[in-house]
Amino acid sequence: MEEFEKLFDEINRLREDEAQQYIAVELDGGKILGGTNEFKLAEAIGGEAVAKILCVWRNGEVDLPSVAFRKLLCSLNSRSTHAKILIRTFLGGSEELAVKELSATLPRNKL
Asked: What pTM was estimated for this model as a whole?
């Protein structure tokens, strides 16, 4: 997915350090941040709005970061609920990558 290319580049840079998961975000202003610890990454983001999120596990699978991290991003800046997040979907028996809004990945009663 071309719109996530910069985030994949950041993930590849992070993979030099062996970790279980790698997360990259693009802030509204275009700045790219990445890390292997969700809460240290959230601290680095501070109150800035997140525009895009990508999480990749060590085995290369694209997946969602934890619900706690996603909720934390939204609590730090409500505009982050509109961030685009790349996720794996299983439609008709096949796996595909899809872009969703962050708010669509959170439990409905927990926003």
From this structure: 0.91
Is domain 2-110 annotated with CATH 3.40.140.10?
Answer: yes
Domain ranges of the chain: 2-110
Separation in Å, CA 101 to CA 15, 63, 70? 26, 14, 11
User: Per-residue confidence of the chain (111 residues) as pLDDT tens digits?
Assistant: 799 999 999 999 999 889 999 999 999 999 999 999 999 999 999 999 999 999 999 999 999 999 999 999 999 999 999 999 999 888 777 888 999 999 999 998 644
